[in-house]
What does this fold into?
Amino acid sequence: VHGAALDPGNSLVVTGGESEMLRVWDLSTKQVVTVLDAPGGQTSAVAFSRDGSWFVSAGEVPPIAWNARPL
It folds into this structure.
């Protein structure tokens, strides 16, 4: 894991690393709830918006904004 972010509600963590995938973890169950395809190489940083409605991943490619509401 090279990048991780905790959502403002403290219920989810998004992690990214060398694979072209982001994993979304439910902290209450400690299980992966979804895996997102993050094309373009490794993810080195992840950050949530203040309201938790979206997050951004960045790394070897330009930053990508993701909708966090369906998670």
